[in-house]
Structures are given as structure tokens and as C-alpha cells.
Amino acid sequence: MPATSIISNVIFVAVIFLGILVILEGIGISDVPILTTFGVGGLAVSLALQDTLSNFFAGIHILASKKIQPGNTIILENGQRGKVTDINWRNTTLLTPDNNMIIIPNSKISTSIITNYSFPEENFSVSLQVGISYDSDLDDVEEKTINFLKNFIKSTPGCVKDIEPILRYQKFDNSCITFSIYIRVESYSDQFIVLHKLIKSIHKFYNENNIEIPYPTQNIILEKTNSFKNQL
Fold it and tell me: What is the mean pLDDT of the segment spanning 129-150?
């Protein structure tokens, strides 16, 4: 189990409770009536604190499944994202990239569809779409781009060094031929600076090698109607 508030609190309460029972047993007080009283009282408390207990057991379930742990970067189905900083007896706290804290009830976490970018591996793939001119030599562009990407990965912090980049042509677009570049980064937070550097570097590389990234173009044809001719 990871070190979280809910685990430390449960252990603390359990140790205190067992310690009290041992002390009472040591001074000759039977613990059976005490346990019976706790059982009856616990039933009443559980009825009054259904939401709290639901969050508590949801937190235990989250930790026991080991699908979400402190330090993982997750995205919820509603778009909220962040790094898990703690799972306590009532809620899970996320630290967003903007350095804000999101507090979510454990019961909401356990029933949400969640993407965990840290499980099963911390690194993951990022992609970039690029469009080149129809006049380009596709084999030549592919070869030069792959060689460029290999050097970029070696020299850029945050990239996974031992995984080869991938380039795949995808479609004939309106004004260009579109392809996607895939590289792997070490963590979710690395993707932003890596993509920033990749866009700048590949733009400079294409300019130096006369590989055209065309502007979007559209042809508009106007037909002269009879009313239009009369107006002239």
C-alpha cells in the first residue's frame, strides 16, 4: 500500500483501539461488553454517516486495486486532470498543471471513467500532424524527417531515447499531404515542452531543406448569371 492519509489514519485508529483493549484486559475489565457496545453504536453511526462511509470504503477500494496511486497523473471523464497527491478517508486531491488543488470525493473517483497516464508505464506516446506540399518527394521527406527526429530525441530532455520515432502518411488534404509523427516522452508533463521544441525545430529544419509546408488554399468560382450581366 502506498503511504496515504487513509492508510495512516486507519493504522493509527486500529493501534489505539487495540491498545485500549489490551490495557482493559490487563486490569481485569472484560472487553466483551465494550465490543458489543461498539457494535450497536457502530450500526447507528453507519446509518447516520452513509456518505462518509461510502467515501471511506471507496478510498480503500481505490488503493487496494492499485490502479490509482499518489504520484499518478490522471484525467477524469469530465476533463479534470492533475497529479494525485493524496487519498484520505473522504476525498482524493489532485494537483493541476496550473498548481491548483482539485478535491474530489472518493465515491466519485470510484465510479468515474479515468485515464491514468502513469499506469502501467510512466512514458507514453505524443503525436504531431504535419502537412507538406503535393510537389514533395514523399520518400525523401520521410527519410529526412526520420533522421531529424532521431537526432531531436537524442538531444532533447524528456524524450525516451531507446524508442524509435514513427512517421505515417495519413491522407490527401485540401492543400497538402498530411502525416503524423509519433515519439514517446518520459512523463505526462514532459509532452508540453517536447512538443514546443519539436514544432520550432521541425519548422526550421524544413525551411533549411526546402520542404514546403503550404498555406491552406481554396478556389472560389463565380458564375455570371443573367441578372448579374444586366446589372453590368
Answer: 95
Helix (H) or strand (E) holding 129: strand 124-132
Cα(141)–Cα(206) distance, rounded to whole angstroms?
9
Would you state the pLDDT for residue 39?
Answer: 59
Q: Are 67 and 119 in contact (CB under 8 A)?
A: yes
* Whether 213 contacts 207, CB under 8 Å: no
Q: Is the pLDDT of residue 49 over 60?
A: no
| Grid cell listed for 166 | 514513427
The type of residue at 82 is G
CB 146 within 8 A of CB 167: yes
Give the three-class secondary structure for 205: helix
pLDDT in tens, 85-105: 988 888 899 999 888 999 999
- 87-99 CB burial, b ≥16 within 10 A, e <16: bbbbbbbbeeeee
Report d(CA 73, CA 94) in Å as an integer. Answer: 9
| Pairwise CA distance, residues 100 & 82, whole Å | 9
Q: What is the distance between the alpha carbons of residues 219 and 103, in angstroms, rounded to a whole number?
A: 52
Give the strand order in the sheet containing 81-87.
Answer: 101-105, 91-95, 81-87, 73-76, 114-116
Residue 221, pLDDT score:
72
Please choose, from the candidates 113, 116, 75, 114, the residue with its C-alpha nearest in 3D space to the C-alpha of residue 97: 75
Other beta carbons within 10 angstroms of residue 10's beta carbon come to 16
Dig out the grid coordinates for 179 from the structure: 502525416
